[in-house]
Amino acid sequence: MNGFIDIAALDDIPRQGARVVKTPQGCIAIFRTADDQVFAIDDRCPHKAGPLSEGIVHGTSVTCPLHAMVFDLATGLSVGADEGAVRRYAVRVEAGRVLLDAEFLLRRSAA
Amino acid sequence: MKQRLVVIGAGMASGRMLEHIFEAGGDFDVTLFNAEPRGNYNRLMLSPVLSGEKSYDEIVTHDADWYTSHGVDCRFGESVVKIDRENRVVYSAQGGVRYDALVIATGSAPFIIPVPGKDLPGVCTYRDLEDTNAMIAASRPGAKAVVIGGGLLGLEAAAGMAARGADVTVIHLMGHLMERQLDPAAGYLLQKDLEARGIRVHCKGATKAILGNTRVEAVLLEDGTVYPADLVCMAVGIRPEVRLANDAHLDVGRGITVNDQLRTSDPAIFALGECVEHDQQLFGLVAPLYDQAKVLAATLLGQEAAFKPVQTATKLKVTGVDLFSAGDFAEGPGREDIVFRDPGRGVYKRLILEGDQLIGAVMYGDTADGSWFFDLIKQKKDVSDLRDTLIFGPAFAEGASANPLAAVAALPPEAEICGCNGVCKGRIVQAIEGGATTLDLVRAQTKASASCGTCTGLVEQVMALTLGDGFTAIANPPMCKCTDHTHEDVRRLIKSMGLKSIPAVMQELGWKTVGGCASCRPALNYYLISDWPTEYVDDRQSRFVNERNHANIQKDGTYSVVPRMWGGVTSPAELRAIADAAEKYSVPMVKVTGGQRIDLLGVRKEDLPAIWSDLNAAGMVSGHAYAKGLRTVKTCVGSEFCRFGTQDSTGLGIRLEKLLWGSWTPAKVKLAVSGCPRNCAEATCKDIGVVCVDSGYEISVAGAAGMDVKETEFLYKATTEDEVMEVIAAFVQLYRENARYLHRIYKWVAKVGLDWCRAQVEDPVNRHALHDRFMQSQSVYQADPWAEHATTPADWAPVADLTLRAAE
Fold first, then answer.
1. Which CATH class is domain A4-110?
2. Which domains does chain B have, with CATH numbers?
């Protein structure tokens, strides 16, 4: 297994919403913006481990549902006064399917 | 001997290519096949033909004489059936033609959605003159036409038929029109303009079937809507016409694969136009096709040339609709937006910057500066010096002033600031200099910003300029950083301007961000639900997690499940079902709540639909323990069992809970009914409390027992249960219609005054009206969300599970 793998149809993810992919290293949140951009980050807020996939998506940012920390989906960096970052994963859309770069799975299991 | 050039397809791209070849004096024997029985005309101009602004003759680009004079052997109406690559021969039904070089320019075919009825007479696409003539014939005044597809082509078809007097409906699958060229704000303005021309627009509409016996009669949507139709035009997109290339075993992806020279996988065969795929890209707009024509002409003439796609801009060819879109307008990393809205004139402009460069522009209503912006995009010019005034266009850019007030300062005294009341800048300055030093005074004296209020920011800028340091902005803070309006202003404007969607509010009230934020979106969603219960559709993605998932999220990401126990009364059967569910889903904690019901804590998200469905099966529904809405009605046992009870407080509590459940409110609402003044249900610290006495029911409101502790205040003395029900429904509706989002009843009452509230519900006419509006909303929103969501368990589970893959 290498490279990008098919995760779901783009339409499985609501606009301005997210769905979760379960992996051995924890859940990854796949976000879809109002204009159909797709981003993937760890589904875990660095503050108190809130599930970011359940946050409100606005523009290309998400607000954590537990304590309202805001992250830029594209950079994984927190926005505003709080400091923090979440890990990003490469993801792309082809022919209406969402493909996730599963390289990280390989690296971890090889190690 | 002359080179033999065969061209398949007489469209705009191949026509332009032949022009270039002949202009350069290229010496070819040209044979031109075309399936359509005519030569090249300007397909872009079909829309003006449809609307009656032009005739077919005016849009012909190459007539028969032109082909004759260049010695082109025209095979119009003759379809090519096969390409023999080995012998370099092209076959039609009439026989073969040899070639040295072959150009495939078969263009594209309209996409036909595979629904029942798609082949009925009266269904057409919008691609060529035949389609256009069919639509013209069908567009007699009063005829009903349905256009499926709200993209560029579909809207031009709709506008054309509407101009001829047809009654047109556009059905569009996506949330807003022209979603590939426009963002939601501009899409909203476009929809408004089209609706003003009498075109009905149905977004988020999926076509289920086209109905009719011998010909088209109506279109049926998935949501059950039926639109009668004499003609249906499908304009949902195009796909490259690649059948010939496929049969000839050329490399074909989505289109015929070509390199920078437009050469296919066979060195003697070239392709251009809408049928090709270059660098994984397809082409539908005319500008890149003309570039291809130039490059292919050069290649065929033996010159060096390479095709490089450039940015293209889009304009909609509908008379009177001013719309412009260029470059890349998606949000993204390191990108910034500059947004300008002038709701009075229906103007929206959005510029997208990446680093020092302008990379995209979307404009609606005023596109005069479009070409200037498009130039900046194409030149990749460093715009950092212009940034502050960039949105105002070239007129201000040359001034090179970095002061954001400069634009306002530069306005002449006769420039209109307030569109509603026609107040110009000079009049406002005059008032300020005459002593109107606060916004309220300016409003009182000039009426500027006193109607719709959207020019408040501009008025304040004029005040800042005129007063200098003497100016301080008003104290009531705006709703959030996305707007300058207060909650109260937004609520008032939603009603007075009839705004019925989140994009409409953001556009008309000049939102400064593109999609709002986690603070304003839930508030707007609530205001719209409250004000337009039967028209607005709840936006689930604008809700906080608890309301979106109908369960309270816990610190570890699990949820709590609380079934409703009407008035705090349960039964052995319900308790058994709760116990079964707790065991079946290994619920870590079962707890009795303060609101007289049972909380199952620690349920995993993917188990929610199943546990809900089990509880539903036992007759229980959601307790809305997560909602800005009715929570519980706490009761004591009352006259039924208690030796002190004066009335049936338990029964009244159940009736009230059954009346109020499911309603959305600005913040949570808790009630209690006590059967006597001993007040065992603690009714006097609730949002609304009822204390029963011998002579009736004392209703008091605005209590609190949370961050603040406050005793309720007396509102109304009722003599019957029915009167209690009506007064409380009316009071809740008053709260729903007037309070700021997240304000509990006690905070709202403190602002508006209890006397005002009492006057509203004491007046019988007003009370009935409030009660009726509440019941109308309940007719829509009183539905169990558990039952609805339990039917789609897949939506609640992870969308993919890679834990097994990793083990492989």
1. mainly beta
2. 3-108+240-300 (3.50.50.60), 112-236 (3.50.50.60), 322-402 (3.30.390.30), 410-539 (1.10.10.1100), 545-622 (3.90.480.10), 630-783 (3.30.413.10)
